[in-house]
Design a protein that fits this description.
Blueprint lengths: L7 H17 L11 H7 L11 H12 L21 H12 L7 H22 L7 E5 L2 H19 L9 E5 L4 H10 L2 E5 L9 H11 L4 E7 L11 H11 L2 E5 L24 E4 L1 H4 L7 E5 L2 H8 L7 H4 L20 H10 L1 H24 L3 E3 L7 E6 L4 H13 L7 E4 L2 E7 L7 H9 L3
Parallel strand pairs: 2-3, 2-4, 4-5, 5-6
Antiparallel strand pairs: 1-7, 6-7, 8-9, 9-11, 10-11
The structure holds pyridoxal-5'-phosphate (PLP).
The site of pyridoxal-5'-phosphate has 13 residues, from α6.
C-alpha cells in the first residue's frame, strides 16, 4: 500500500530550505500574474496518476507558479490591503501545518486554543471589552467574521422578540461599509439601511438616528460601523454610533478588519473611542498585524451570544458541546478549523506587543509623509485627511485610462503595485501602507512617476 511517506525525508530538506530561502529574500520581488496560456506553456499538467515527484513539483512552484503570484509582502505592494507577516509568524505557519492540530474543540485542541485565546484577549483588552465575558475565535477573514457576528446579533434579536417578529430584519450602516457587509445581508436575507455620510465620510450617531427615524423599519437589529474603511481608512464616530445603539437596544458591530490593528498605536488610539461599547468586532491579523493569511479575530462582548447562535448540534458532537470548556467552533460559521491564530500568537509571544506598536507607528509615519508629499505637489489632490495609513489621492487631469496604463506599467516593470479605485464617482488611487519596510523612498518613487 502507498503510505505517501517514502520520499518524505528527502523532501523535508528541500521544502524547509525553500521556505527558509523565501523568507530571506531581500529585496522581495513584486512578481506578477501570467496568462492562462503562458502558465499552461510553462507548467502544463501536474496532477497525473503516477505523480511528478517532489523535486519537480517544488521546482515548478519555485520557478513558475510562485513567480506568477504577486508577493503581498513586497514593500512596494501598496494596493488593496497588503500583508506583511513577521518571519516568526510565517515560520510558525509551517509548524501549525506540521503539528496535526484540530482547533475546533477544547477536547482536541486545548493547548492551541489556550494560546490563541491569549492573542484574542490582547485585542479584546485593547478595545476595553469586559474581561470576564469577552471572547471569540479566529476565522478565515473579515467577511466570515462580519457574517458570523451579524448572525449572532440576529439570533439574539429573534430570542428577544419571539412572539413579535418583524416581517423583515434589517441592518444599518453606511454606503462606505465593506462589500462583505452587503454580502452578509444578502446571505442572511435581511434589508440594508444605508446611512448617508457627510463630507467627512463618517457614520455619526446623529446621522444614524435621523436615518433610522426616517426609515421607520421595525426590524432593525444591528448597526455596522467601520473602523478604517478599506478605500480611505476612515474611522466612523464609534462613540456616537455606540450611544445610539445602546439607547435603541441595537447590536453594535464594528468592522475593523483593517483599522482596528491601530488600537495599539498611541498616535491614533483616540480615533477608536467608543469601541469599548461594541457588542462585537473583527480585526484581521493578516492585514495590519503581521500574520499570514488567513486570519481574522472575531470578538464578542459577551461570548455567550456567539455560542448560542453558532453551536452545532449532533449526536456525535455531544461529547464536546456538553462540556463547559471553550470550543472555538461555537463562535462562528464553520466547524472544522485550523489553529489559524497560532502564527499570530507565536509572533506576539516572541516579539512582545510593543514591537507591534513600533511597527504600526512606523507605517503611520510613512503615511503622513505620503500625505505631505501629495499636498505639496500641485499635480496631486488629497482626497481626505487620512485617519490611519490609507492615503487616497487624485492625479489632476487623469482619466480612468491614464490610471490603468500607469498602474499596469508600474507592475510590469516591478516598481510597485498601486491600483486605481473610485471615490465619489471619480477614478482615483490610494496607498495602503501596512508594511513597516515600505519607505519614504518608495512613496517618492511612485509619486514621481505621476508627474
Ligand atoms: C478586508 C476587509 C474586510 C474583509 O476581510 P477579508 O479578510 O478580506 O474577508 C471587511 N471589512 C473591511 C473594512 C476590510 O478592510
Amino acid at each position: 500500500m502507498h503510505t505517501f511517506d517514502e520520499s518524505a525525508k528527502q523532501l523535508a530538506e528541500a521544502v524547509i530550505q525553500y521556505a527558509r530561502d523565501r523568507m530571506a529574500l531581500d529585496p522581495i520581488p513584486l512578481d506578477g500574474p501570467r496568462s492562462m496560456d503562458e502558465l499552461t506553456a510553462a507548467v502544463g499538467a501536474t496532477v497525473t496518476p503516477e505523480g511528478i515527484g517532489g523535486a519537480r513539483a517544488l521546482e515548478l512552484f519555485d520557478k513558475e507558479l510562485s513567480t506568477s503570484c504577486i508577493s503581498v509582502d513586497s514593500p512596494q505592494y501598496v494596493a488593496f490591503i497588503p500583508s506583511a507577516p513577521t518571519k516568526a509568524a510565517s515560520m510558525f505557519d509551517l509548524v501549525v501545518g506540521a503539528s496535526g492540530l484540530y482547533a475546533g474543540t477544547w477536547l482536541e485542541g486545548a493547548g492551541a486554543i489556550y494560546a490563541e485565546n491569549q492573542a484574542l484577549a490582547w485585542l479584546a483588552g485593547m478595545a476595553g471589552l469586559p474581561k470576564e465575558t469577552a471572547g471569540g475565535v479566529f476565522v478565515p477573514g473579515g467577511s466570515v467574521g462580519n457574517l458570523s457576528a451579524l448572525v449572532a446579533a440576529r439570533h439574539k434579536a429573534r430570542l428577544r422578540r419571539a412572539g413579535d417578529l418583524p416581517a423583515r430584519w434589517a441592518i444599518a450602516g453606511t454606503d462606505q461599509a465593506h462589500s462583505s457587509v452587503i454580502a452578509a445581508c444578502d446571505v442572511m436575507d435581511v434589508d440594508f439601511i444605508g446611512v448617508p455620510v457627510g463630507d467627512d465620510g463618517r457614520l455619526t450617531g446623529e446621522r444614524l438616528r435621523r436615518t433610522l427615524e426616517e426609515a421607520g423599519h421595525d426590524g432593525v437589529f444591528a448597526v455596522v460601523a467601520t473602523a478604517g474603511t478599506t478605500n480611505l481608512g476612515i474611522v466612523d464616530d464609534l462613540a456616537g454610533v455606540g450611544a445610539v445603539c445602546a439607547e435603541q437596544d441595537l447590536w453594535f458591530h464594528v468592522d475593523g478588519a483593517y483599522g482596528l490593528a491601530a488600537l495599539c498605536a498611541p498616535t491614533v488610539r483616540a480615533k477608536f473611542d467608543g469601541i469599548e461599547r461594541a457588542d462585537s468586532f473583527v480585526v484581521d491579523p493578516h492585514k495590519w498585524l503581521y500574520a499570514p493569511f488567513d486570519c481574522c479575530a472575531l470578538i464578542y462582548r459577551d461570548r455567550a451570544d456567539g455560542r448560542r447562535a453558532h453551536t452545532q448540534r449532533a449526536g456525535y458532537l455531544d461529547v464536546v458541546t456538553e462540556n463547559e470548556e471553550i470550543n472555538p467552533s461555537d463562535y462562528a460559521i464553520g466547524l472544522s478549523r485550523r489553529a489559524r491564530g497560532l502564527p499570530f500568537w507565536f509572533s506576539l509571544a516572541v516579539h512582545g506587543t510593543q514591537a507591534y506598536t513600533v511597527a504600526i507607528e512606523r507605517t503611520l509615519e510613512v503615511a503622513r509623509f505620503a500625505t505631505d508629499q501629495i499636498r505639496n505637489r500641485p499635480y496631486l489632490e488629497l482626497l481626505h485627511e487620512p485617519d490611519l495609513s490609507v492615503v487616497g489621492f487624485h492625479r489632476v487631469g487623469w482619466t480612468p485610462e491614464d490610471y490603468a496604463v500607469w498602474s499596469q506599467g508600474l507592475l510590469v516593470n516591478g516598481t510597485a503595485l498601486v491600483t486605481p479605485t473610485t471615490h465619489a464617482g471619480r477614478t482615483v488611487t490610494r496607498f495602503a501602507i501596512v508594511n513597516p519596510l515600505t519607505s519614504e523612498d518608495d512613496v517618492l518613487t511612485i509619486l514621481d512617476t505621476m508627474e
